[in-house]
Amino acid sequence: MADEDEATPEHVVELLRSLAEHHQGTAREWMEDQAGDRADAFQRLLTAMLDIERKVFVAARDSGEIDDEVLRRVLRELDLRQASVESPP
Q1: Torsion of CA 19, 82, 51, 17, to 10 degrees
Q2: Residues contacting 11, CB < 8 A, separation 6+
Q3: Which helix (H) or strand (E) holds 65?
Q4: 18-54 confidence digits (pLDDT tens)
Q5: Which helix (H) or strand (E) holds 86?
Q6: 3-state class (DSSP) for residue 13
Q7: 25 exposed, middle or buried (CB, 10 Å; 0-12, 13-18, 19+)?
Q8: So where are the chain's domains?
């Protein structure tokens, strides 16, 4: 189990940064192309991206790149983001 004070490995930080940058660009492009209700479209896109992120981190844990503690922390953060997407404004 990872120590609470242990720094996050650089490759995990880079993966998160890369995913965030990709999501930002993809979301912007997709929103510009949508003709329907943009709020619903954005919610669907963000939900899909969060699902993909979960799969990426589970695969990273399964391959030994991250441990269970890092996975739990990431999944908790993704769950919080998911809840904020699903809650009404």
Answers
A1: 10
A2: 65
A3: none
A4: 777 776 666 666 655 555 566 777 788 888 899 999 9
A5: helix 68-86
A6: helix
A7: exposed
A8: 38-89
Reading the block at residue 86, the tokens are 């699903």
pLDDT at 68 over 90: yes
Q: What is the mean pLDDT of the chain?
A: 77
Could you tell me the two tokens for 45? 């896109």
Give the list of residues 6+ apart from residue 88 with CB closer than 8 angstroms, or none: none
Q: Which residues contact 69 (CB under 8 A, 6 or more apart)?
A: 1, 2
Return the structure tokens found at 80.
């919080």
Question: What gap in Å lies between CA 27 and CA 72, rounded to an integer?
Answer: 26
Question: How many Cα atoms occupy the beta-carbon half-sphere of 68 within 13 Å?
Answer: 1
Task: Please tell me the total number of residues recorded for the chain in this structure.
Answer: 89
pTM of the model: 0.58
